[in-house]
Every structure is written in C-alpha cells, then in structure tokens.
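Sorry to interrupt, but I need a hand with the structure work. I would like you to pick a protein and set down its sequence and fold. Please put the record directly below this note.
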Amino acid sequence: MLRLALSTLRFRKAGFTATFIALLVGTAIVMACGGLMQTGISPRVPPQRLAEAPVVVAGDQHYNLPPTNPGTEDEDHESATLPERVRLDASLGAKIAAVPGVAKVVPDVSIPATLPADPDVKLVRGTALGHDWATAELAPYSLTDGRAPQRSGEVVLDQATAAATGVASGGSVQIAVRGGVRPFQVVGIAVAGGKMASDAVFFSHEDALALTPATGQVDAFGVLPTAGTDPAALSTQIANAVRDQHAVALTGVARGTAEFAQASDGGEILVILAAVFGGLAVQVALFVVASTLGLSVQQRRREVALLRAVGATPKQVSRMITAESMVIGVLATVLAAFPGELLGNWLFDRLSGFGVFEPVLAYHQDWIPTAAGVLVGLLSAWGAGFVAARYAGRTRPVEAMQELVSPKRWLTSFRLWWGIGSLIGGVALAYLTITVMDGPLAASTAGPAVTLVAAAVALFAPGITRLMVAVLRVPVRAVSGLSGYLAMANARVRWLPMSGAVVPVMLATTLAVFMLYFQTTQVESAKQKYASNLSADAVVTSSTGDVGTGLLDKVRSLPGVGTASAYVTSKGYNEKPSDSGQDEDGLALTGVTGDAVAKTRAAELASGSLNDLQGNTIALPVDNANRLHVKVGDEIGLRLGDGAQVRLRVVATLRSAPSFATALMPAGTLAPHTTDGIASQVLVTAAAGTSVSQLMTTLDGLAQASPGVQVANRDTLTAKFVQEQEANAWVNYLVVGMILLYAAISVVNTLVLSTAHRRREFGLQRLAGSSRGQVLGVMAVEGMVVAVIGVVLGTAVSLAMLVPFSQAVSDSWLPYGPLWIYAVVVLLAVVVSMVATLFPTWLAVRGKTSIAMLSPE
C-alpha cells in the first residue's frame, strides 16, 4: 500500500504541495510554542554580576501558600514567587564564612541610583542601580582607567555609562540617590567580564552603606571557595548552615535568580502565552490540514471510482489515502524542526522586546517541544487523512461516478454529531462568559468558545455554502451580467468543493475580527476602569527616593494643594485566616496616606473609616473580607511581598471592580517591605477654589526647584496606562498575526488547489468560444462569492463571542474598536481570495486549449 501511495503522490503534485505546506507551517508554529512553554516551565536566568561566584546565597523567594480545604480529599497546595526582594541579614555573612571550604564571602547590595543626562533630569536609560565596588570582583569588573573609589563622594562608572554621559575618569557627574541629586567624582572606568543586562555605577564602601535601601541587610552573598573545593558539595554545606534563615544556596544557572529575583515570573507568562496560542495553532492546523486534504480527495472522485470499479475494497482505498497523508506528514513534520526552532527564537526575542519578561531570561528548546510538534503534525495528518478516507472509501462506484456531475451527499454522522457538540460547547461557554466571568477572566472562556463555534460552522460549511449560493444567485446575476450568470451556474453545481474554499476564508476572518476587537475592547475597558478609579488631579514622582522622606511634606505645604497621599504597590498573601480563593497572584496591596486616600483614590467605602488607616491596619475588598469571614475590628495575618509576617487590624471594607480590587495599607507600613523600600508616588488633589491648571503650575514650580521630581496630570497618567496596556496587546497582536498568516496561507493553498484543478473545464470553455478574459471574469465572480460567504460567516462567528465578551468586561453589548479594522480585514480577505483564484486561472488559460483539455483533473 505504501508503494501505491508513493506512486499516486507522483501524479498529484498540487495536492501534495498544498497539504505539505499546511503541515510544515503548522508544525513549525506548534514547535515554536512548545519551545516558549519549555522556557517558561524551566526558566533559565544565567548569572551576570555574580558570574565569578560559584555559590551564591540569597533570600528564598519561594513561598508555599496555606493549603486550601485542609484535612479533606480536596486539600490543595500552591506555591508562588514573592514579588519583592527577600533580603538577608548582613551578619549571616560570618556564618557562611565559617563553613569549611569557603575562602571569601562578598555581600552584594543594589542601590537605587540614576544619572541625569542633562539639567532637565532626563535619566540615562539602564543606569538604575549602583553597587559597592567590593562586589566588582564577582562579575568580574576590571579597571581600564583610574582607580577604585576609596572615599565618600567617589564613583567608578562602567564603560557604557561613561559613554552615555560623556564623562571620563577625573571628571564629575550628578547622580540621583537617596537624599537628592549629588555630585560625585569619577575616579575610574571599569569594563565587565561579560555582557550585562544593565549598566552600573560603583560607590565606595562608605557611600554604599549610607545609601542602601535596607540598613543591615544585603541582597545576596557571593561565595568564593578555596582551591579544589567542589561548588556542589560546598553549596549543600552552606544550605544546611543557613537553613533557618530563609536563605537558599544557588549554583550554576540558578545563581541568576539572586540578581534578578523576579525574572522567573516571566516563565509563568510564557507558559500561559504558549498554552493559549499553541492550542490555537493546533486547532487552526487541524482546520487547515483537514480542509486542504479533504479538497484534494474530493478532486480525485473519478480516480477513486475507477479503483472501486476494478475491485478495490473500501478498506484498501481508505488505507491508500491514509498512507498518502502519513507520507506527507512525516516529510513535513521532520523538515519543520529547523524552522520551528528559528521561529521560537524569533518570537522569544520579540516578546522580550515588548517587555513581557526581563531580557535576562534565556530561551532554550530541546527535543521535547520538537517531538511534541512532530506528534501533533502526524496526528493532524492522520486525523485529516482518516476523515477524508472514510468519505472516499465508503462510496459505491456508481454513486462516485454520479457525484462527478452533481454531488449531493455531505452530511455524515461524523459531521452531524461533532458539529452539534461543538456548537453546544460554544453556546455553553458564551453563557458562562456573560453570567459568571468578569474582567480578565472572561478571556479564558471567550477564546475557546469562538474556536468551537468556528469548528461547528466548518463542519456544516457544505450545507451553509449551498444555501448562501442560492441566496446570492439573484443579486450576483443582477450586478455582474453574463459572467455572474455563468459563475453562479458553476457554483450551483460545485457547491461542495466551493465549501472547501470558504472554510479557510471564514477561519481567517473569524480569528482576525475576534482577536483584534478582543484586544481593543479589553484595552478600552481597562482604560475606563482605571480612569474611574483614579481621583487624584496630579501625581508627583521622584527619582531620588525623597517620596518617603520629605517630598510628601513639601507637596502638602504648597498653596492650592487640598490633599496629598503617598502611593506604593505590592502584593501579599492571607495566612490567618486562610483564603480559600487565593492563588499565586495573592492579594493586591496599595500603600496610601490614610487621611488623604478618600479624596485621592476612588474607593467606595462599604464599612469602617479610612481615616483609621494608621500603623498596622488594612482596608479589605468586600469579596476578600467575606471569604475570610472577617469584619471591621478583626485582625488578620498577612505575608507581605518580602516574606515578612504581620498582624493587621481591619479598619474598613471597600467595594471596587474585581479587576481593580486592592487592599489599602498605610504607605509607611507597606513601603519598607518593598524592594525599593520607599513610596514611589504622591497623589495630589486641588484645594477648593483651585483649578487643576493652577495646581499643575504650582507643582511644576516644585519640580523645577527639585532635581529628579516629575509631575503628571490625570490625562497623562491615563494615557501612560493605556500605552502600557497597548504594549501588552502588541504581544497578542504578534502571535495572532502569526496565526493569521498561517490561516492566510491556507486560504491561498486551498483556492490555488481548487482553481488549478479546473484546467480541463477552462479548456472546454475556450473551445466553446470563451475568450481568456471571459474565463477570468467568471472566475473573478466565483472568487468574490467565496470571499463574501467566508467573510459573512467569519463575521457572524466572531460576533457570536465578541458580544458576550464585551458585555462581561465593559457592560456593553457592542465591542469597542474603530470600524477601519473591520474594513481592512474584509479588504485583505477579498484581495487574498481574488489573487489566489485569478492567478492560477491566468496560468491555466494562457497556454494552448488542446493541452489544457489533455490535463489530468
């Protein structure tokens, strides 16, 4: 049977090529998504500044959440990565140094430090951290000019920072540090031993101690072993010595997490993206391969009829077609390995460029994603071949010969039950989207629902196409004359193969319209909720770290300022009582100034008073308080972002949108438990009788007199928020664009295959007196009919889920987004359909008519 399959493929190059391309591209996309998922599941963060330390001791960022449903069969344990840096006591260095085999212990601390590039305090990008020069040997950094900083006020710049500022050794530079912008003497220039993710400024030991965010604490310890000591064995000994200090000993690639504590969070994002878009790619691949192979088999009805007439059994015919599809599948999936890895690398670089995760994360793809892609490709080929073979193998010879003229049978039991099942599944998910899901969670049901509805439409496409051809017959004839008459006459006879061309157009339109308006609706909803949640008239920030020490008091003393509240964000985890609805995302925390928060932040008070938000207190969202079964006056145990445990008294409960639900804490209580150790912003409202423009003028005066201080109004903040949301949306646009490109390839594949098969028909039309232009005119009308039917069905399928999704996230039945997006999608669908129809037609009719008549079907 394999020899027969290979023989038939030699004479079916068009169908072979179309199916091969569909499988090759689809498998490559699945492999790329598999590589992204593997990178996310086992994130690798190579060390940079600590690369010369074989062992690194850092705070344990891993946190085990309290179990849900403890003591029952449903008891569940989840873990999370703490969002703030877990620092270690500096005295732990002596304990580590006492471990046998340790030659030297170097404490490492990152200091907030930025370099203004000009008097307007525009910061040099990348220079956000400073370090003690004593840690330079851990990279290693070496001096290319000058000397090491020895006294207060001296610094060493790395080459990148020196080039960006234009400062050489012996010059001076203004650096924004805690306490303000100060002049420092540049005494040396250093070069790193390898590529670094960010530039660096090195201070003297004296300044490093004074500027550290957390006095008496360090970020990590670099451990240099004695000669001949095994780093792995030494790491085990150190881990035992520091076990009770919430510290971990790291070796190899794991050391990078000590420098970039949150870099591994990008792995979770990658897993989600790869799972969502990998699943979408698999579904599209199944559609595309099944459609292409099914059309190819339909075009071989005469061949199958002849085989059946000379004695071939249905089983033999089925085995032949399945063998053909598997031969194509093996070739395509094996050859997809190389482009799949290249595509994965390219996608990873693009996602990193969009800021989805820190660029220090390293992409890696081994045999597992490749094998998974091959398996998916082979299963797609086998499944598509099996379904096509069932149709061809079960047809009796006489019926097959009749179907060459007027095909009538298409609704098999497989199409019927799978179509009904997909439609029911899509309707159920749409119902859940409207009634249960809210905010971002709505995406988890809307995405799968649209693919299920699209699957149902694809399965019923022959019947729908036949019906729409009947509906369009009169209007098409009315506007296109004789060409339209002949085109619709063809369509009435060829509605079954035409449905194979309609499906990829429908799928491409569905994906484009749904995913694009899905993003625009989501961004607009987030913008509206953010704007309604922000009551402040202006926001003041400082690059010098003065928000927690003096900036708030300065702002409050200005004329025209009504209220001013510090602002800092973090996350925490409920421990006592335990929250059954808590996951690794934890509880969003916002640090504010209690007596001002009511006027600077839109938080609808359910009970209690925000004026009592002082000291170890908290205001909880109503839903969270209900799950914890606590009320105003009760105490809760909370694990803060840096791992610290605190007891907080509930002073208020708040009503807010689920997507913006956050607990409020005093900024002075929350800020010390963040990585920066200070509040990041001051929210300001104007006093009665003071306009917003007058307030902004006053605050601008403060900014000009205070280097590093910046002021933004509500519109600027909202625009910045929208810009961040749109940056995240570009990630989805990138991956969706890749899927749409694949769908567009399938459109071209199918239409070219369908049109090229009709060379004999075109030759007959030429013999009957039709000119080349007339044949092209008839095919242009047919191509337009295919495009119209595909666009109409795709629009209907996308709206079937866009409407409930929009209702879930924005309380509006109409999705948000400009109409030109839809116009562009329709135009591209029509252009691709017309080009893919007319180009092969032109190739077919440009030769001699007699040769065309002799061409095989």
